[in-house]
Each structure stands twice: as C-alpha cells, then as structure tokens.
Amino acid sequence: MDTQAPELLRRLLRAKDRMDGAPHEEWSVQRLAHASGVSEAHFARSFKQAFGVPPHRYLLTRRIERATALLRDTDRPIIDIAFDTGWASLGTFGRIFRAITGESPRAMRERARAAANALDRVPGCFLAAAHRPDLATSVLEKRRQAADATMGSIDKGRSHGTRRPGRRSVRAGPG
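and the corresponding structure tokens:
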C-alpha cells in the first residue's frame, strides 16, 4: 500500500466497527464505502486485503456468530432470532446457516444444549473462538466442492471396466 495506509486502515476499521455494532442492519458496499470516505471498488478491494475476507462475508460471519449465541443461550423462537440478526427470511437464514456451520439452526441448538453441561468449566472466550464460523471459503465454493465430490464418486463408478469416449486404449504386445 502507499503512504496513506494507516489512514485507510483507520477508515476500514471505522466501517468494520459499524458492522460489528449493528450487524442486523443492511450494510451495502456503497454504504460502507461512504462511511469510509472511499470509492466502492477501492473499499471492497482494500477491506478484503486488510481483513482477509470481503465485507459481505465478514458481515455474514458476524450475523451467524450472533445467531449461534442466541440459539445456544436463549429459548427464543428461531424465526425471531433470524429476523433480529438481520435476515430477511427464515428460509435464507436456514440455508446460509447450514451452509456455513454444517447443521440447521435447530440441530445446532439441540447439540449445544446437550453439550452445555460438559462445557460449564471452559472460559467463554475460548468457546466463542471455537464456535466462530470459518468463512475462508465462500458458500458458493462449498456448494461447488460438494457437487464436484458427488460427480467424482459417479465418475469412479463408471471407470470400472468401461472406456470413456474419446480415449484410446493402448495395447501392449507385438507391434
């Protein structure tokens, strides 16, 4: 980065702090760039470079963390938690929650309650770090990987005793 890097980082932190303070709100790149005083493209590129994830993915992480805590620590209905953490619909919340955490909100709540007794002696800060969702891979990329894995197992089943079209077989023997 150039000599303005510390100022830019302060601006990016300002936008990140706003997202942290109100993750339930709509935070478009345009709104965040305006709060940072830079262009949208520059903001998006600089945010990813500074924090390792795009702004939208960072916001998803915060929303899922908050929803996970509410599911684990309260008896509130899942639909209320979804709306209170910034999701426009229960379906979207459930789909994204499952894609990121690997389980449905209900299943996570049941598992967390069953494990609560065993975790009473572990400090809360350690638990929060252990339950933070890993969004190094985007939701769409996870779907592609799952689809590729499914297709790979189908291809393996076909390769036994059959020849794929367009491939020549090589015979060993007298030439």
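(Above: one complete record from the training split.) Residues 55-136 form a domain with the Arc Repressor Mutant, subunit A fold (CATH 1.10.10.60).
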